[in-house]
Amino acid sequence: MRRLKKPLPSGRAVVTRVFTQVGFYVALLAIWQALVLAKIWPPYLFPTPVGVWESLQTGFADHSFWIAIAVSMERMAIGYAISAFLGTILGLLLVASRFLEDTLGRLIVSLQSLPSLCWLPLAILWFGLTERAILFVVVMGSMLSVTISTESGLRNVPPIYSMAGRNLGARAARLFFYVLLPASLPHLLSGLKQGWAFAWRSLIAGEMIFVTLGLGQLLMMGRDLNDINEVVAVMLLIVAIGFLTDAFFFRILEQSIQRKWGLTPAS
Questions:
Q1: Which among 132, 90, 130, 97 is positioned nearest to 112, based on CA atoms?
Q2: CA–CA distance from 36 to each of 114, 137, 195 (Å)?
Q3: C-alpha to C-alpha distance for 93 and 190, rounded to whole angstroms
């Protein structure tokens, strides 16, 4: 069977798309500046674009932003790796065992409704004000989402795929790795993306509570100093890191998987 390939967009379409995106953000900046000029709120409550830009320049010039980004991303890498591994394993176990699905599976779905901040008091009681407490919050904020997505992805594979694989001689591990896993990859990747977003938010929340290096701490320092420009500057950094992670990791990974397994949608 031939794989249907989505045609590459024309140069004109790419240029139009870029101009649309740039125009959107320029319009947002214009609205922001218009609200500043309207003086609806005092300057210490509503920052100016210039003030936020100067705060960004200062933070990068004195390396405080670079240090905070490096520390937060290190914690994020460790916590997310643990949550992705444990979440995937738990999802596989729930699919493999009806008993676990009816017991542990129900509990996981219930726990998923807890905001990540609810794990923070427990983390402090168990681990104290340490790195392990922050990692615990990150793992618990992300792992459950990955578990549910993994289970859902494997259960939503059409039964005809398994039947076809068995008819072709695939059994056990070969059936899983060559049939079930590729068919469930879109759900799995979506769960990993969602898990990353939950982990990122959990990390920032944990850093805001602890007196420790990181973007969350810079956010609280800006609040304590009543520096609205720094608060918004750090918020923009947090959003930018999320955007760049999606654009240069998850989106590229998603496109690579689609090309490899022939999952690219037809035009």
A1: 90
A2: 37, 37, 36
A3: 19
- To the nearest whole percent, how much of the chain has pLDDT over 90? 19
> Residue 4: is its pLDDT beyond 60?
no
Among 13-27, 108-122, 213-227, the range with the most confident prediction by mean pLDDT is 213-227
Length of the chain: 267
- Cα Dmax for the chain: 72
Please, what is the angle between helix 131-155 and helix 64-96, to 10°? 40
Give the residue carrying structure tokens 């790796």: 81
Q: Please report the domains of the chain, with CATH numbers, ordered by start residue.
A: 52-261 (1.10.3720.10)
What is the full DSSP assignment across 75-121?
HHHHHHHHHHHHHHHHHHHHHH-HHHIIIIIHHHHHHTTS-GGGHHH
SS3 category, 260: helix
Measured in Å, how far apart are the chain's first and last C-alpha atoms? 17
The span from the CA of 159 to the CA of 171, in Å, is: 14
Question: 80 pLDDT band (50/70/90 cuts)?
Answer: very high
